[in-house]
Design a protein that fits this description.
The structure is a homodimer. The first copy, chain A, is an alpha/beta fold. The two termini of chain A are 32 Å apart. Chains A and B meet through strand 48 and strand 49 of A and strand 48 and strand 49 of B. Strand 49 of chain A pairs antiparallel with strand 49 of chain B, so a sheet runs across the interface.
Chain lengths: 473, 473
Amino acid sequence: MERLHELLERIIQRVNINLREPMFDVGPYVRGLIPWQQLIKFYAFYGITPHHPLNFHFCRSNLSGSYFLGKCHVSDAILYKSDIRGDELKRKGDIFQFEGFEIPLHDDETIRIKDSYLIKTLVHSNSHDPENLEDFIIQNTVSAHYTNIHGSDVEGCFLGPFSTVDLTTLHDCVIGEYVYLQVRELAHRQIPAGTVWVSNPDRFDFSFRHDPENLKKYIRLERGAPPDGIFMTFVDQRKGEFQRIFDVVNLKSPFAFAQGSSLNRYAVIKPKTQISQNVLVAQRAYIENTWMGSGANAQENCYILHSRLHGNNVTAHGAKIIHAELENKVFVGFNSFLQGAVDAPLHIGEKSIVMPHTIVDLAEPVHIPAEHLVWGFVRTQKDVVENSIALNELAAISGYFERGAMRFQGDGRLFVDGFKSRIEHILEANGAYCDGTTQIGHAQRSQNISFNLMQPYADGELKGLYPTIAIHS
Amino acid sequence: MERLHELLERIIQRVNINLREPMFDVGPYVRGLIPWQQLIKFYAFYGITPHHPLNFHFCRSNLSGSYFLGKCHVSDAILYKSDIRGDELKRKGDIFQFEGFEIPLHDDETIRIKDSYLIKTLVHSNSHDPENLEDFIIQNTVSAHYTNIHGSDVEGCFLGPFSTVDLTTLHDCVIGEYVYLQVRELAHRQIPAGTVWVSNPDRFDFSFRHDPENLKKYIRLERGAPPDGIFMTFVDQRKGEFQRIFDVVNLKSPFAFAQGSSLNRYAVIKPKTQISQNVLVAQRAYIENTWMGSGANAQENCYILHSRLHGNNVTAHGAKIIHAELENKVFVGFNSFLQGAVDAPLHIGEKSIVMPHTIVDLAEPVHIPAEHLVWGFVRTQKDVVENSIALNELAAISGYFERGAMRFQGDGRLFVDGFKSRIEHILEANGAYCDGTTQIGHAQRSQNISFNLMQPYADGELKGLYPTIAIHS
């Protein structure tokens, strides 16, 4: 196991060199965080389909419990129960549009992860950095539990638990717990826990910050200990359900599912669940006693329990929905936590948008009206007033606006239209509108995946490291 | 699936070109023999240990249910539930001794399989061809169910079911059902079913042929159909037991086993079985209600039921032992079938040698005395007389000798001493004599194997083919 220890120390050193300004030592947040036995216990796996490019290269790494799809090179890294989903990578010949530039890709894009330690992290989409079109780079970086790295090159960073870096290139930053960032590019910054910040320079800027004391109940990270709080308790309580499906090699779903839908065999589907057509349930999603209407999706690390999703609902990576009814086309952003209860259900009207990293934890029944944007922290119906706005009201804004702790600056219409078109893009990409022959998306392309399993050396000085493995079509 | 069909036809063509003299069409013995669904159903797997060199390369092949260890390159081949065991390959720097030559190896040996279709075949040991020291070659070859290719380069051959090619280089040969060959080199020959032939030119020549009509009850192969007979029925009846152990990814043995022993997690161990120290049970072995004495081993495709093996017993690849008591150091050769019954048990005295491909199928209790060589077909105590010889009697022979249908020519002492030293070598290699620190062998080195699983494309024109996979340390 000597080499695995060396690898961890080497990664800490690399990240710390990047983080010398701001001065930050990732060591106490990483050392001993995942017991060594865990790094040896779980197999890694990769998907093979005729619909995705295939090119993997794994070298001098530990990949415990992690999943890979598409094209991905990993070297000198520890990837613990992470999902590296290369099904939206750019392809050779694609044209990348950026501020008037039209740049053709000269090769298929590849995810490149090196000198990094990712814990239960989701990597998805493709690099939105115009400087690195063929490479989606994650380097000299530590990401904690349930981080989303979405379309973002990340170099020399520490990403706190349940944080999301979305379409943003990051250099040498420390990102706090539950931060959501979508700001194009950021360097040498420390972003405090609970910040939700969407910024498109010269167009709009949306920001909110969760109350730090309140947030600690949900998620907190302290030196030398794993993250703690309601979010962690919630997922830990359901860990056992996943064990069973990881223990067997091939698993036939006990559920008949509708045309055009796909339930990943590494998802947990519990009774009584209804899966309608064109539904996509990704690996590590958890669905229980829920109606998934036509074209609805549940992405990685989503938990949807005791709920009814009417159709074409997007539930982004890591979102949780409990005791809720979501009308048609409701969007729930990354890592949002929507917790109703039997006697305090949540109802959201159609086409409403739940901002990423929103916490709804109900003490009474709450209704969020149709075509609203909701953010922040909602516990009662009264909280909805200070944490939401009608989309048409937001679209009419030009200049500065504030409501509760939310600040908006810029062109509201661009913000709303941008969000709407992104939701449409997600639904299309996921195959929500597939008629069987056209508008095929992830749901249809993911129906026939073969999974190959990799394990590390079980003994000797290489114990815990995987051999060098290269796979291509 | 188009490519998989093309691959099969291409293999048939390659083998038939080699077998134009003797003119033989392998097509009817291969086409449709394994249903296409089977070729897609079972995962392939390879072992990773710190004790074996690691280098795999798989390309344009179907590997359904097959197992790989050591160094192995497979291209344009179909390997169905075969075991490619590279744990006895020669290493760089080894000195190969051959008739006065001492040839140092300039590289690790690699098993190279191309343009071939192997069905439930075992490949083991290392190439004994002095012309190909670094390559153990299997090319343009079809092997049927339960063939053993042991230390033998094979080019352009058809190997019938339950045949064994042992330490013999074969070119352009057709080998019948249940043939055992250990003759150094053979080209352009057809060997009839049931032949057992051991020949060391200028030293000795042992030969026997099973009665063709009697053999058909045990194993027969006809054009266009899978092999049939008692051997096939016996293994098919126990197939279900293996399903369970292949379905789960990692399996902890429910048995406590003794120091220095190893039970492969892909073996079936049924109650009430006793595993003593330094016992080796290989993958795809089946043990039920049996006492495995210290240093005993059960190799691939062995079945040992309701028996007592006193210790240091070698049960070679594919041998079956039912209702038998085997004293110390009894050797049972490849694919032998020793079937006693509750009221007709078999007893074999110590240090006796059961020739490969011997059938003992008892109608009454039978005792084979100590230090005897037994061959052929034994049903009663009377049959033992015509199918065995005391080792010291055999060692005294010089010249021609016959007993029953067995013919011997040459130096009996060389034959007996050669056999004895080979048995000692096998026991040493398997770790039968390990004291915990010295004389470590397969039993001890195989205790901590990680298994990685590979599956083919599940869809599209590549359906059934595995992607290109390269693995090294």
